[in-house]
Amino acid sequence: MLFNSFQFLIFFPVVTFLYFLIPHKWRWLHLLIASCVFYMAFIPVYILILFFTIIIDYIAGIMIGNAEGKKKKAYLALSIIANVGVLAIFKYYNFFISNINDLLHNLNIQIHDLPYLNILLPIGLSFHTFQAMSYTIEVYRGNQKPERHFGIYALYVMFYPQLVAGPIERPQNMLHQFHEKHEFDLTNISSGLKTMLWGFFMKLVVADRLALYVNSVYNNVDQHNGPTLILATLFFSFQIYCDFAGYSLIAIGSAKTMGFNLMTNFRRPYFSKSISEFWSRWHISLSTWFRDYLYISLGGSRVSIPRWYFNLFFVFLVSGFWHGANWTFVIWGALNGFYLIFAAMTQKWRESVNHTIRLDRVPWLMNVIRVITTFLLCAFAWIFFRANNVSDAFTIVEKIFTTPGKIFVTPGNKSIFIYGVFGLTLLWLYEYKKEFFDGKFPVLTNRKIYVRYISYIALVAIILLFGVLDGGQFIYFQF
Amino acid sequence: MKSKYQIFIIKLFALFSLLIVIDFGTGKLLEYFFLKLKAGQNANVTYAINNAEEDLIIFGSSKANHNYDPSVFKDSLQISTFNAGIDGQTILYHFGVLKCVLARKAPKVIILDLHPDEFELDRGYDELSILLPYYYTHKEIQPVINLRGKFEKYKVLSGFYRFNSLPLKIISNSIKIQSEGVQGYIPLNKTWNKSMEEKTKITSQKGPDMVKIDIFKSFLKEAKNAGSTVIVCISPLFEKRKEISKSITIARKICQAQNVQLLDFSQDNYFFSHPENFSDPSHLSAQGAEIYSKFIAHITKEIINK
User: Fold this and answer.
1) Residues 6 or more apart whose Cβ sits within 8 Å of residue A369
2) What residues in A contact B23, CB-CB < 8 Å?
3) Which residues, including other chains, have CB under 8 Å from residue A103's CB and lie 6 or more apart?
4) For residue A298, how many C-alpha atoms fall within 13 Å in the half-sphere facing its CB?
5) pLDDT tens-digit series, residues A59-87
6) Domain B54-154+178-305 has CATH 3.40.50.1110
7) Would you give the end-to-end CA distance of chain B in angstroms?
8) Neighbour tally for A314: CB within 10 Å
9) Does A118 or B81 have the greater pLDDT score?
């Protein structure tokens, strides 16, 4: 079920209302059933895959908890193989087969093409697989006791707000919350609804509006010039942010209404002053997942410098691959890894340049330059993330530097600019206030009831009047 | 003393009541200005739905809109003509508008320009949003709009929803004035100068849309029952096709069964040899539209005089 569907408009209040009506000891069942309904709204049969990994990891968790030494390690390995195996079959099998077939053709080896699997990628597979894996890893590390209640464990993987696109939670943060009794709390409900409202604004008013322009340009790369491609790329930078951060806010808000606290997933990433800061603000639940379970396992930064660079690069390469079975994502990941290594290698040199030209004496200017530079680097990398294929991505990069011309504007897409810029302006004002004046000039949380009510109604009106309401999917669902 | 639940319910009720009032008021206000628009695409739709009483009305998508010059029909047939073609629309939209036209007065002649892949196109339902502002002013259009989705009839209760993305158009087109005499027709002045492509694979792998086929049948039936002469046309393409599309085959069968003339110009050799008559492979230039309109007007005359 999509958050931006009419079904969800009915589903959400019914589930939340029933949650508080039902006695505490049955609430887990209510949420589990609701989560099944939510997931089965997409492709019902894929819930079996979810159950498969849930059963494997539930048993693995208990076995790991009871075992010691090599046995403990073996159980963890089995659980990871099962999870990664499901991912490999459903997400990466056809990608590898396609590459092997291409390679054989290029080498002029005359054999029949290896067969493809005619299957669709289950929605949000990478998200709940990673969440399930974090459970067995944390049990192995002794940070989490094995969950004996099968229903609660299933709910940990399937909790509907974060089931299909995160935030990717940790068992230490979530499992205990399912055991606790959450009282009907007006503060939680109000806070959750406001968070959801802003999430809908980001998704429907900004992301989906900008997507209309981005899609028309990126799906016809050959027909557009450099300035148009630059604008579409800048628009995509905001589209993907508002699409995914919007989803996260709706997830966090809907969980909050029932008293559950999900982790923050985005903290105004485009105010970052460096790429490493960007990654501490963007898709935080995934970045920290890779940090905790891969980067640190590889040795993190407590190794030789070349090995540290390798660790950084490898983690981002895997992160790129996590996003999708396409070389565009791998290049996007590699590019981000390269940015980080380059930043680390040139840090001292950049500091000395800033000192020489006395930029470090004007901190605000230096910060503005750093924020803009970081944003542009990210935007450049997004070209590879959004392009339909690698060839398109390189065509875009080439055209940006070699094909001047007028920006593509038609009478039909003028409104995209006007509504899009209107949405972006509101977004920027909100984020700027939150970044630099947090707690000041409250609007949605103003003490005066009339200010609050006017702001709620204005936001609803903006969403319904200026949002794109035709049910555009969230970009991250495909991952 | 009121409990926190009661306070919550009261506040929620107050907020929703306020929202409903503002939504309703805004919807009414936007509707007032929207129906008064005199320029732009929406003004053409409003005219077709509210006023069009011409003797000949042309229905269709952008192909209809750019390929049929009403002045040619007026001169040739000596009857008033209106071009109700709208970019990106399908038979679903045409049927909605037809219902409104027939509720007022049946035209003598109806020309329906059908897309060569009409029943296989992946669009048509979302595009019906162009009719949302008329949901409550024209009851006959409601079943067509409801095809957008099973919850559509509830969504349209919101005034904000019905006028979604329209405020800017309402403001900008309120101050413009439509040039007179065009009768819905928008000529394309660009000329196509590339060579012709051959299309071997036709449209999507999905089968034809049964809803659209049924609506097409209803379109022909209701127009004929109202006493109109119906002609179905498929405009010229600058694109050679190796096979006839499923949609044309289906349309031909339906037209035969309902005794309606179908004129297929999609693979016409005269137009293939005159690229200057095209603006792009799917649309005629102003010059091409004039020539094509003369062809159609001539045939229409013969059909009427039979």
Assistant:
1) A359
2) 461, 464
3) none
4) 19
5) 999 999 999 888 999 999 999 999 999 98
6) yes
7) 85
8) 16
9) B81
**What letter represents residue A299's amino acid?**
G
Q: Report the alpha-carbon distance of residue B160 to residue B151 in Å, rounded.
A: 16
> Domain residue spans in chain A?
6-181, 188-466
Q: How much is the CA Rg of chain A, to the nearest whole Å?
A: 24
Segment A36-45 shows an average pLDDT of 90
User: Which residues 164-223 on chain A approach chain B with CB closer than 8 angstroms?
Assistant: 184, 186, 189
CB contact under 8 A, B4 and A457: no
- Judge: B164–A6 Cβ closer than 8 Å, yes or no: no
Does B164 contact A186 at a Cβ distance shorter than 8 Å?
A: no
Give the β-pairing of B229-234 and B109-113: parallel
Q: List b or e across A25-60, with b for residues whose CB sees 16 or more CB atoms inside 10 angstroms.
A: eebbebbbebbbebbeebeeebbebbeebbebbbbb
Residue A323 annotated to the active site: yes
Q: Which of B196, B202, B306 is nearest to B261 (CA)?
A: B306
Residue type, A123: I
List chain B domain ranges. 54-154+178-305
Quick: pLDDT tens for A315-360: 999 999 999 888 999 999 999 999 999 999 999 999 999 899 988 8
Residues B118/B208, Cβ–Cβ less than 8 Å: no
Q: What is the ipTM of this complex?
A: 0.82
Strands B278-280 and B239-241: unpaired
A–B interface: beta-carbon pairs under 8 A: 53
Q: Tell me: the pLDDT tens digits for A412-437?
A: 678 888 899 999 999 999 999 999 98
Q: Rounded CA gap, B54 and B185, in Å?
A: 14
- pLDDT category at A215 given cuts 50, 70, 90 is very high
Give CA–CA dist A152/A150, Å, rounded.
Answer: 6
C-beta separation of B78 from B50 below 8 A? no
User: In 10 A of CB A348, how many CB atoms?
Assistant: 9
